[in-house]
C-alpha cells in the first residue's frame, strides 16, 4: 500500500489541542495502518486500502469531527505527490534568501477555477507573491508572514474553498523522512 499524508486543518491551533497519540489512535480507528504523526501541526502519515482520495478525506474529516467536536478538514496527498511539492521551485532562489523570507504551501481539496486563480494572483504585493500549481498555492513572503500586506479574508474569499497551510521546510522534512523508499513506522 502506498504511503499517504493527511494535512489537517484546525489541529493544535486556537486553543484546540490534540496529542500525537490521540491523533494516531483516531486514524487507526478508521482502519488506517502504519500511522505516524509529524510535529504537532496535523501531519499524519499512514497507509490505506482506500484508493479514492476524496472519499478518504471525507471519512477522516467526519471521524475527527465526531471525536473532537469541531470541524477538521483533511487534505490527502500521496507521498509521491508530497515529494513533488517539496521538490518544486516556484520562485527564484534569490527571493528565498532575503532576510525574513519564507515559502508556504496552501493545500486545496480541488483545482481552482480560472476565476479563483486570477483572483488569488491579483492579491500579490511587493512583499507577497503567489504561484499556483495543481492543488497547491505557493505563497512567497519576502518578509515575515506577520508583516504581510495580503488581507487574509480577501485571500480566503479569492480561493473559495478550505485550505491547510504549511511552511515548505515542514513539507521537505516530511518528504525526506517518509519518502517512498521507506516502509513501516520508525
List the helices and strands and how they pair.
Elements: E1 3-8, H1 20-28, E2 33-38, E3 43-47, H2 53-68, E4 74-78, H3 79-87, H4 93-96, E5 102-107, H5 114-121, E6 128-133, E7 136-141, H6 152-159, E8 164-167, H7 168-177
Antiparallel strand pairs: 1-3, 1-4, 2-3, 5-7, 5-8, 6-7
Helix pairs in contact: 3-7
Summarize the structure.
This protein is α+β, with helices and mostly antiparallel strands and 186 residues long.
Q: Biggest sheet: strands side by side, in what order?
A: 2-3-1-4
CATH architecture of the largest domain: 2-Layer Sandwich
The figure for the number of domains is 2
Backbone structural class: alpha+beta
In angstroms, what separates the terminal alpha carbons?
17 Å
- Strand % is 15-25%
What's the story with the biggest beta sheet? 4 strands, antiparallel
Based on CA atoms alone, the radius of gyration comes out at 17 Å
The geometry reads as globular
Which CATH class of the largest domain is shown?
A: Alpha Beta
Q: Which sequence of SSEs, written as H and E, runs from N to C? A: EHEEHEHHEHEEHEH
Low-confidence stretches: 182-186
CATH fold assignment of the largest domain: Alpha-Beta Plaits
Number of strands: 8
Helical element count? 7
Average pLDDT rating? 92
In percent, how helical is the residue content? 25-40%
Oligomeric state, counting identical vs distinct chains: single chain
